[in-house]
Amino acid sequence: MIFREDAFSGKVVLITGGGTGIGKAIATEFSKCGADVIIASRKIENLSKTAEEIESKTGRKISFYQVNVRQEDSVKALFDSISKDKGRLDILVNNAGANFLSQSEELTLRGWNAIIETILTGTFLCSKYACHIMRENRDGGVIINIGATTGIFGSPFALPSATGKAGLEGLTKTLAAEWGRYKIRVNLVAPGVVWTEGFVKNVGVTEDLREKIRRDTPGGILAEPEDIAWAVLFLASPAARAINGVTLIVDGGHYFAKGFSL
Ligand SMILES: NC(=O)c1ccc[n+]([C@@H]2O[C@H](COP(=O)([O-])OP(=O)(O)OC[C@H]3O[C@@H](n4cnc5c(N)ncnc54)[C@H](OP(=O)(O)O)[C@@H]3O)[C@@H](O)[C@H]2O)c1
């Protein structure tokens, strides 16, 4: 255990895209530390399987709801359900995301919109409705957005994703400043490459590339989903009470050592 077993007891935590990959690791680590965890995304079958898996590991109930973060009605319905069922929300992790590779000059508007709406509009909508609940808390709340190093350094052939993740930097800093009056802290965690099924499917990369990235990363540490989760738990904890509006890069120092281009 990295954090105490009761580090988040009494806290209600929502993780969008919590049924798979990095989101699933974040949900698992919060549940291990006593949080009341909610996961939400479009595919209910993934959510229910993951909820069962985490419950069997931690012995704590995981709630799950269907949501499409691109649609305001769907997001509003999710937060209405959370208000009704839990009565509060302490931590939101905006983890839902999507990506695909394309030459930018051939990219369709439909493809552009799908990714921008998932990353940027989805994070805006979930943050807005989370704020409506969190601002009623006496001790405020925490929002953590999952960005990417591609949003800082760019990423050839992944224009909408790199642009959306870059947009999250402005969104994070703006909300951090604006929602201080509600005691809501807002930070961004920016992973480099993390070998999840979603990453392999969306980007279509090979084991050879994985080994190359590992070799090029100082210390040879290629971040696992749990490494991203631990950064999120730290930022959500009182140990980070004075940290607001920052971007925490979690890539083992890979970009600074070698740069990255698919
Ligand atoms: N893996 C990496 O190398 C890497 C690097 C940097 C940043 N990231 C970021 O980390 C996050 C998680 O990525 P991952 O690698 O774990 O991939 P993943 O398993 O594909 O996770 C993406 C999640 O987002 C959910 N999602 C997608 N569109 C949605 C929508 N419209 N509404 C609600 N949920 C939606 C998906 O669930 P449903 O299909 O059920 O909706 C899925 O659970 C993403 O934001 C990604 O950009 C990943």
Which tags fit this structure?
262 residues; alpha/beta; seven-stranded parallel beta sheet; 15% strand; binds NADP nicotinamide-adenine-dinucleotide phosphate
Brief synopsis:
This protein is of the alpha/beta class. It has helices spanning 21-32, 44-58, 72-86, 109-134, 150-153, 159-178, 197-203, 207-216, 225-236, 254-258, and strands at 12-16, 36-41, 62-66, 91-94, 141-146, 184-191, 247-250.
Structure description:
The chain has 262 residues and is α/β, with parallel strands linked by helices. The chain has a domain of 175 residues: Rossmann fold (3-Layer(aba) Sandwich). 48% of the residues lie in helices and 15% in strands. The chain contains ten helices and seven strands. Helix 4 links the parallel strand 4 and strand 5. Helix 1 runs parallel beside helix 2, helix 1 crosses helix 9 and helix 3 packs parallel to helix 4. The longest helix is centred in the middle third of the chain and has 26 residues. The chain is globular. The structure holds NADP nicotinamide-adenine-dinucleotide phosphate. NADP nicotinamide-adenine-dinucleotide phosphate (NAP) binds next to helix 1 and helix 7.
